User: Fold this.
Amino acid sequence: MSGETLTSSEYIRHHLQNLTFGKLSDGTWGIAHSVEQAKEMGFWAINLDTTIVSFILGALFLFIFARAAQKATAGAPNGLQNFVEWIVEFIDTSVRGSFTARNDMVAPLALTIFAWILLMNLMDLLPIDYLPLIAHAAGLPFLKIVPTTDPNATFGMSIGVFVLVVYYSIKMKGLGGFVGELTLQPFGKFGLPANLFLEGVNLIAKPISLALRLFGNMYAGEMIFILIALMGASWASVTFGSTLLFGSQIVLSLGWAIFHILIVTLQAFIFMTLTVVYLDMAHQEHH
Amino acid sequence: MNINATLLGQTIMFILFVWFCMRFVWPPIMQVLTARKQLIADGLAAGERGKHELELASRHATEGMHEAKQKAADVIAQAEKRATQIVEEAKGQAKGEGDRLVAGAKAEIEQEVHRAKESLRQQVADLAIAGAEKILRREIDAKAHAELLTSIKSEL
Assistant:
């Protein structure tokens, strides 16, 4: 709990608010101290927690992997190299399975997406109140530790993927081919508006579904952690009800955390696989 | 949960991470994996080759041993034959030598006998002459009857 006086809805709202830095309503730049303040900042504000945590995790992933890659030998691998190779081979196999064209960019892209999203999702398994509590002690009003529960992070990635899909569609098929694909099927050139509408929705749906699927899963998971955490928060005195709730919190959060490990990995894998599939489609003449 | 500039930051970060991964992480690891694959394939091939060579060598060795045994048997047989031959030759030679020695001895004995006979004959003749001289000292002239005496001597 961040404070004794919070009501349940305040507690939830508090947990779902990012640490936002932007222009305050009085014209100065600073950190928003309430949900309303953060909302007023508009587009030109930045979620410090999402940015910093995701940067640290991405850098950690790249640091470990680059270190392993530097020291890697073809002989018997040591522990770290073994682990890194295991992941790399796993990614390589899945990419080879679903990507048929030749592009040296796709496999490293898939690895980055998988590892980065996995690490960001894993933040969900940290005890839900500890880090915000520490942040509160340090004077920060909010801290949302899981970057993938911030749509900015998931849309940030899916937009990157979308740009790549459009880029490779145009590169492989030419601008005419890409426009043709958008306008000339499935109904031929006389159904052009319908074609454009259908294919446009199809195209736009890719990044939106990518981002929202990941965001939705992680957000829902986080929400359930928050609700479970609320059970023990109703602790008043040593009564049967309070003790039962407290015990339930421990059991439920353990169970949900174990189940969540599956979701965390699965969502990272799904995001990666769909990215590869979308890029594969961008390389194909017909889909 | 507002969409704000974090979106741009995340996109940029994402692109940089992917670029870094593509530049510094993926190629060396893949290179190592490919090299290891090659290494293992080479090792397996070498093992297979070694096995094959071992088989070949053992077959070769067996053949060599067999041949050597054959040769040794041949040599022994030949040596035995030669030894027999040498013994036979030696036997023949020894026999010849013995025969020769026996013949020599026989000849010598004969000669000796002959000589003894001769000297005996001489002595008998001398004795006869001495006896006859004693008897016929006066009557018989040694010189006049020498021819007669010689003919008697030769008849003895």
The first strand of chain A starts at residue 20 and ends at 23. Chain A touches chain B through 54 residues (CB under 8 Å). Strands of chain A lie at 20-23, 29-31, 45-47.
